[in-house]
Amino acid sequence: MKLPILVINMKAYQEVVGEGAIQLAKAADEVSRETGASIAVAPPLPLLKPVVEAVEIEVFAQSADPVRPGAATGFTPLEMIKEAGARGVILNHSEHRLLLNDLSWMIGRARDLGLDQLVCAPDPETSAAAAALSPTAIAVEPPELIGTGKAVSKERPEVISRTVELVSRISKGVHVITGAGIESGSDVSAALSLGTQGVLVASAIVKARNWRDKITELALPLLGKR
After folding, report:
1. Residues 191, 193, 199: CA angle, nearest 5 degrees
2. Facing residues of 21 across strands?
3. DSSP letter string, 21-79
4. 170, containing H or E segment
5. Nearest to 207, CA basis, from 6, 17, 16
6. Residue 152 — pLDDT band, cuts 50, 70, 90?
7. How does pLDDT run across 123-151, given as a tens digit for each residue?
8. Angstrom distance (rounded) from CA 67 to CA 65
9. Residue from 170, 178, 174 nearest 140 by CA
10. Which is nearest to 39 in space by CA: 56, 58, 62?
11. What is the pLDDT of residue 178?
12. Which residues, including other chains, have CB under 8 Å from residue 99's CB and lie 6 or more apart?
């Protein structure tokens, strides 16, 4: 995971059904190549491999399940994520939470497979607990601000600064990024100024009228530009 980073979580929005996910990923890929910004995309799982094959930027899985390949109907083991070409996986998003013991197992298994682990947490204390499991990065996202357009970096900056402080106490090697309500370049700049190393964004990009323009707006602050 190259930091600072913009991670685009496509979720399961109608806009990214079928070719939409590929087109959004291609727009992100173009912005990354033209600006030099580190950008990753997380498409819906059924579209993971087609997106991997369409772009050069990092592709993350939105989730996975705490199972190994075998008799596990309806579940997606990390081995299949790896085989599809993903570079990492998002774990414990507020819309797809995991039990602590499952999260611990999956972080370790993903690490063994060479997959980056981006673990979501709702607050500083939970972020610190997750940091004790030594994932690649923590994404602190207060769930009440997700999708609201009210950026955590401006509405509740203390959540970010406290998370950075607590996680650094646990492990200097665990990176912190942030999400929830991030809509503009100034929201990203504010997040970076609080000590985070990137942002996790969903609806602000997926639902934008012009994907390329919005991705560029949110990526430039990663390079110290506006």
Report:
1. 25
2. none
3. HHHHHHHHHHHHHHH--EEEEE--GGGHHHHHHH-SSEEEES---S--SSS-TT---HH
4. helix 157-170
5. 16
6. confident
7. 999 999 999 999 999 999 988 877 788 88
8. 6
9. 178
10. 58
11. 94
12. none
Determine which one of 58, 141, 183, 217 is catalytic. Answer: 141
User: For residue 72, what are the contacts with CB-CB under 8 A and spacing of at least 6?
Assistant: 65
Given this model, what pLDDT does residue 146 score? 77
Percent of the chain with pLDDT over 90: 89
Q: Is the pLDDT of residue 226 over 70?
A: no
Q: Provide the pLDDT for residue 50.
A: 97
- Rounded CA-CA distance 212/221 in Å is 15
Catalytic site residue 141?
yes
Residue in 34, 53, 83, 93 annotated catalytic: 93
pTM higher than 0.90: yes
d(CA 213, CA 58): 20
- Residue 5 pairs in a beta bridge with 38, 198
- Is the bond leading into 4 cis (omega within 30 degrees of zero)? yes
Rounded to whole angstroms, the maximal C-alpha distance in the chain is 50
Is residue 96 flagged as an active site residue?
A: no
Q: What is the CA radius of gyration of the chain?
A: 16
